[in-house]
């Protein structure tokens, strides 16, 4: 992903003390987060930690939900879900340009389908496509609108491992070309590390860790720094790698070419102590959020 960690870009997203509650229970509890223009942020968190609730708030799909706090997000937002949500009675091109009011909509739709590797399939029906191909159409439909912000809620969660790897490469290429800010919800730590400029971990409605990923491309699992960053994120997700039956990557201590403290993450923010494994999941520190250093760098 083309990233410019040293360059100060404006904030595409700024969230300040966001609260969202269901039946009096706070799911987002004073959440602070900023995402720069063109930045790719992966959002990890245990099931029920509020990831989709956050995405729905950013997409303005939560009108009926109780909440407060500041939320600035662009108007031009596209959302990709785990299921492609194509209209089965419309051909692929019509699905891609649905609602797109532009004189050159059809031309752009064709170009978008070509970008995702589906040139020549414009007149196909969704039912004729595999799951991975349908998700390609979903990406084309999102990016044809040239959104400033792309929200992706586990977009590859239903795909097989090989298709997912291909989709990672495609998403990287598309984002480098179109440069939207991206907030990707995923359960897959490796996916987060492979794709994102920054990985944030949501825990009990707040950001428990916010780690820039400073790993060279291509980011292959097992590369320098990768394993230790992975362990650190897993610890924040409550996975105890010391538990019998759970093995850390064998190369976790065999990384070369990086300093002793190099976890592949820059000087991010973590609740609790520096090592997530030492702090244990949650560690109680989620209730006293540290200042978000990464967000601090983002000018309004
Ligand atoms: N419309 C709703 N009404 C009531 N409770 C809700 C609603 N939407 C979400 N919740 C609750 O809010 C909590 C967070 O849900 P959310 O879907 O945001 O979690 P998540 O982190 O995306 O989970 P998962 O990883 O399992 O998809 C859950 O306990 C869920 O039951």
TrEMBL record:
Task: Enumerate composition-biased segments (Low complexity).
Answer: 255-264
Residue spans with biased composition (Basic and acidic residues)? 270-280, 290-300
Recorded hits in InterPro entries, A to Z, give:
AAA+_ATPase (IPR003593), ABC_transporter-like_ATP-bd (IPR003439), ABC_transporter-like_CS (IPR017871), ABC_transporter_ATP-bind (IPR050166), P-loop_NTPase (IPR027417)
This protein's source sits in the domain of life called: Bacteria
What keywords is this UniProt entry annotated with?
ATP-binding, Cell membrane, Membrane, Nucleotide-binding, Translocase, Transport
Where does the ABC transporter domain lie?
Answer: 13-229
- A GO molecular-function annotation: ATP binding
**Region of interest: Disordered:** 247-300
Recorded hits in Pfam families, A to Z, give: ABC_tran
Name of the protein this chain belongs to: ABC transporter ATP-binding protein
- Its source organism is Streptomyces chilikensis
Lineage at the top is:
Bacteria, Bacillati, Actinomycetota, Actinomycetes, Kitasatosporales
């Amino acid at each position: 992903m083309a990233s410019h960690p040293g360059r100060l870009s404006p904030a595409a997203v700024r969230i300040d003390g966001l609260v969202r509650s269901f039946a009096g229970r706070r799911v987002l509890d004073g959440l602070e987060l900023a995402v720069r223009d063109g930045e790719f942020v992966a959002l990890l968190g245990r099931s029920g930690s509020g990831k989709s609730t956050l995405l729905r708030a950013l997409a303005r799909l939560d009108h009926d939900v109780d909440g407060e706090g500041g939320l600035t997000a662009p108007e031009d937002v596209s959302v990709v879900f785990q299921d492609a949500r194509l209209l089965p009675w419309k051909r692929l091109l019509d699905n891609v340009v649905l609602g797109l009011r532009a004189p050159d909509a059809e031309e752009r739709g064709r170009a978008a389908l070509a970008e995702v590797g589906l040139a020549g399939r414009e007149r196909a029906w969704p039912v004729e496509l595999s799951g991975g191909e349908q998700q390609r159409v979903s990406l084309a439909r999102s990016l044809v609108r040239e959104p400033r912000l792309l929200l992706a809620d586990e977009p590859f969660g239903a795909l097989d491992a090989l298709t997912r790897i291909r989709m990672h490469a495609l998403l990287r290429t598309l984002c480098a070309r179109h440069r939207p800010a991206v907030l990707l919800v995923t359960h897959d730590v490796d996916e987060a590390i492979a794709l994102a400029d920054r990985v944030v971990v949501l825990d009990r409605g707040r950001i428990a860790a916010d780690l820039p990923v400073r790993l060279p491309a291509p980011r292959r699992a097992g590369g320098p720094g990768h394993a230790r960053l992975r362990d650190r994120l897993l610890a924040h997700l409550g996975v105890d790698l010391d538990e019998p039956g759970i093995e850390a990557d064998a190369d976790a201590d065999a990384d070369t070419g990086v300093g002793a403290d190099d976890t592949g993450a820059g000087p991010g923010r973590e609740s609790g102590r520096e090592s997530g494994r030492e702090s244990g999941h949650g560690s109680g520190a989620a209730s006293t959020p540290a200042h978000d250093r990464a967000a601090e760098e983002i000018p309004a």
